[in-house]
Structure formats: C-alpha cells, structure tokens
Specification:
single chain, 250 residues, alpha/beta, 5-stranded mixed sheet, 3-stranded parallel sheet
Length: 250
C-alpha cells in the first residue's frame, strides 16, 4: 500500500525471479520503484480509460497476464495493497491459470483495511466490524449492526451502475446518506479515510457528520468508517445456556 515499506521479502523475491512482471499500482513513483527490481515491468494502468467499462479493463488485464503464462513464462502480477482485496483481475488470472493446468498462487499483502485499523486505532475485536462495498449497500437489502463499526469501501464511487466513472457526485452520496439514515442519526460522526501510498504523505482522516457527507470531496480511493451508534445488546437466553453448561459436570 505504501511505497517501499509494505512488501514482504517473499513478495520481493517473486518479483525479482519472474520472467515478466505486470503492475497495477497506486502511483507512478511506485511503478518506478517496482521497475528497479526487474527489467521487464509492464504497466496495467494503460487499460483504464474514461468512459470505458471497468470490467472490460479487468478482462484485458487478465488476458495480458495469461498470454505470457501460456507462452511458458514465469509471470508475477503486482497490485497495490492486498492483491485479493477489491481486485477482480488477480483472482480471475489465478482461476484461469489453474483451470488451464498452470501453477498459480496469491501472496498476501498489506491492504487498506490493515492501514485503516492502524491509522484510526480500531480493534475489530472490541465490538465487531462489518465491511461493505458502498454501492452494494445501495443495491441490496443488507442488515446493518449499529453496535459494530461499519466500513464502506469505494464510497466516492457510490451508485455508479455504469462501471465507467471514477467518481460520482453529491446526489449519489445523498442516496447513501438516506440509506444510512434508516439506522443512524444525521448528526452521527463519520470518518473519511484514505491510506497513504507514499511515505511523504500521511493518511486522510477527516471527521464529518452523516448529514454533511454529500458535500464532502471524495474519490474512489476514499473509505467511510462509521463508529458504533448503539451499545451491544446482551442475549439473556444464550447466557443462561452457557451458565448451565458451566455448572454441569465435565
């Protein structure tokens, strides 16, 4: 996620020992850093274009990767953050490679979620933590537990059904607010978060209220963290069952 610091020795070894490296990273400087590890680094960013459906972009990425695999080369794909978190192309590349008889595996990395826990001081074991892609929360009827943290990913892109845009505007975020207002008061605090990708930058941690969210400046890289609004409710019946088990002979 952050240039230079969030890479394991094993991940670096895979990059250095590959025949060809494909990279989809967060910044041009990060791409240059990867190029210092290998002479043949091919950027996947070129497949993105304004107005182009992202799924088409992802399929083209997979095809570029698989073309080199089928040519008998040892291929490494480098993706910022965790390669399996909000990343369709890595999962699909591995699935297709295995289906065609090639060996393929994913090496875990540090995700934006890991950075969020550290930067915001959240321990998911305290009261629980639920994660949703922001648009998915609008498209489907989901049950929100307001006694746990709620993390909404890609909130700056919420409501984009076309899959061609890189951000949506205040009207779309207002729909998100209306959905969240079913469970949270409008004056409830939310945190706009963005993990740092360069060591010279700090994370974005901006506190606002649910009511003010539509007018906030947000990108597809921004995440919403919403603190619990209610206390956890005890379950007396289950507690009683456990107490009876404790009293019973071993």
């Amino acid at each position: 996620m952050t240039l230079g610091s969030h890479i394991s020795p094993l991940a670096r070894s895979h990059i250095e020992q590959a025949d060809v490296v494909f990279a989809a990273v967060s910044d041009g400087l990060v791409e240059q850093w990867v190029e210092r590890m290998h002479p043949d680094v091919r950027s996947l960013q070129r497949y993105y274009a304004e107005g182009k459906q992202r799924m088409q972009t992802y399929r083209e990425m997979v095809e570029a990767i698989l073309t080199e695999v089928r040519a008998g080369k040892r291929v490494c794909g480098v993706f910022y953050g965790h390669p399996g978190v909000f990343a369709w192309a890595p999962h699909k590349s591995i699935q297709m490679a295995r289906a065609e008889g090639y060996r393929a595996h994913m090496e875990p990395g540090i995700s934006a979620e890991d950075c969020l826990y550290a930067d915001l001081g959240i321990d998911p074991g305290t009261c629980g933590c639920q994660h949703y892609e922001a648009s998915q929360l609008l498209y489907y009827s989901r049950r929100i537990d307001t006694s746990a943290w709620l993390i909404l990913w890609q909130a700056g892109l919420v409501g984009d059904r076309s899959q061609t845009r890189f951000h949506t505007g205040p009207a779309y975020r207002q729909v998100l607010v209306d959905v969240l207002a079913r469970d949270y008061p409008l004056d409830h605090e939310v945190i706009i978060y963005r993990a740092a990708t360069l060591p010279v930058h700090g994370p974005r941690i901006e506190h606002t209220t649910l009511a003010r969210l539509p007018e906030a400046d947000m990108t597809m890289a921004d995440t919403l963290a919403i603190a619990p609004a209610t206390a956890m409710l005890p379950d007396p019946a289950i507690r009683q069952r456990l107490a009876e088990l404790d009293r019973s002979p071993a």
